[in-house]
Amino acid sequence: MSRREPLVVVSNRGPVGFLVGPGGELETSRGAGGLVTALRPLVDRHEVTWVASAMSDVDREVALSGRRIEQSASGSPFALRLVVHDAEVYRLFYGVVANPVLWFVQHRLWDLKRDPAADLGRAWQHGYLEANRALAAATIGELDRVPDAPVLVQDYHLYLVPALVRAARPGARIAHFTHIPWVGPDSWAVLPPEIACAIHEGLLACDSLGFHTERWRAAFVESCEALLGRGAEAERVSHANPIAVDAVEFDALAANDGVIARRAELLAKRPEILVVRVDRADPSKNAVRGFEAFGKLLEHRSALHGRVVLLALLDPSREEIPEYVDYRLAIDRAVAAVNDRFGRPGWEPVSLVVRDDLLASVAAYAEYDVLLVNPVMDGLNLVAKEAPLVNGRDGVLVLSREAGAFEELDEWVVPVDPLDVEGQARALERAIELPDSTRRAWLEGIRSRVRRHDLDAWAERELAELEARAPLPRGRATMGL
Ligand code: G6P
Known about the structure:
Number of domains: 2
Radius of gyration: 23 Å
Shape: globular
Number of helices: 20
Low-confidence stretches: none
CATH superfamily of the largest domain: Glycogen Phosphorylase B
Bound molecules: 6-O-phosphono-alpha-D-glucopyranose
Largest sheet: 8 strands, mixed
CATH topology of the largest domain: Rossmann fold
Distance between the termini: 18 Å
C-alpha cells in the first residue's frame, strides 16, 4: 500500500505531550515508549489522525481547543485529537486496571496473595470501560470524517475500543496491535470471567490482530478457544509481526553532540569491563534479579573486582502506582547490597542512574561490553534491538528467553532464564569471556537482522494484513486530512 491514505491511530499515550515552557509558551515533548516510535513511519507516509488520552493538565487544556495539526519528529504533519477523561475515571483506568491488573497479568507478575482486589469490578466499569468508551467515541467522530480509513488501535489500554467502534460503525476496518506478551487461559483465569471474556471479545471485533511473536499469537488463539470457543476465528484474524526500530534514527543519534559529550564522560571513567542495562523502572524488567546476579558474579570471581562496573540507566515509570514505588525501593536496596558488600574506595560496582535521558542511554549503548536484558517477560524489548546498532565495542547481548526479541535474536545472544539468578551470574561471566571473533560475529548477526526487518516493513505489514482481511471497497475514495 504505497499511496498516502487517511489512517486513524488510537492509543492511550499520544505521540506528543504538552508542557508550558519557561516563558509561558506551549512546548511539546515526545511521548515515551516504543509504541510511539514504532508508529512514526505511518505518520510520515500517511494522513494520520491520532486519537489519544490527555495525560497532563496542559494536555487537557490543549484538548479543549479540539483537533489540531502537529508535526512528527521528522516534520510530517498529523492531526492530533486528545481525549479528556474525568480524573477519577483515568485513575481507575490507568492506575488500577491497565497497569496493576492487565500489565501484571500479561507479564506473569500477578500476586494471588493480594489480587484481584475486591473492587476490581467497579474499577473495570467506571475506569477501564469508561476510558475506552471516550476514546472509541472520538474514534467514531473521526470515522465520520473519513469513513473508510483503517483504524489502528494500540495495546492493552484499549482492548474494548474495537468492539465499541464496531457496534457503532459495523463496516469500519479495524486492526489492533498488542505490544505486550499474551498469556494462556490459566493466566487469564485469575480475572473474573466477565472481564477476561470482554477483553477477548473486544479484540475479536477487529478484522486484523497483531502480536510481536508467534508465541504470543498462539497464546491468544488458545485463550480465545478456552474462554469463548472462538479459537478458529482468532487463528484467522491474527498474525505475528515483531516491531522494529528505526536504524536511521539511531545512526543519527550516535553522531549527536549530546551523545558524543555523554560518551566522552563515560569514557573518562569507564572501567575495563562495562556491563550496561537500560530499562524503564518497571517490575517486569527484572532489574533486582539482575543486580543480585551481578553480586553473585562478584562473589564467584574476585579477579573481576575493581575491573567491572554495572551501569544501570533506568527511566522513571508509572510512579503513581504503589507496586512501582515498592519496586523502586527494592532496586535501591539491591544496588546498596552489592555496593556495600563489594565496593571499595575508587570502585563502586553498580552505578544506578534513574532519569529519563535518551542521549545518555545511547552513549551507554555505544560503550557496553555486555548488555544485560533480563525481563521476567517482555512483549519484545526494544533495547535489545537498539543498542547493538550503535555499539562500538563488539558488545555481547545477554538476553532473557522470555523477551519477544529472543525469537528473532536467539542465535547471537547468551540466553538467560529471568528467574534463575545463579544462571544469570554464569551468563554474565560467559559473556565477559566470549572470544573476540564470536563477539563480532554475533553483533553483526543482530545488526543485519534489525536492519533487514525495519520499521517501514513493520508498519506496511500491519496495513497489508488489514487490507487483506477487510479490503477497501472498490471505487471508494477516502478524504484527506
Ligand atoms: C510499554 C507499553 C506502551 C506504553 C509504554 C510506556 O511500552 O507497551 O503502550 O506506552 O510502555 O508506558 P506508559 O505507562 O508510560 O504509557
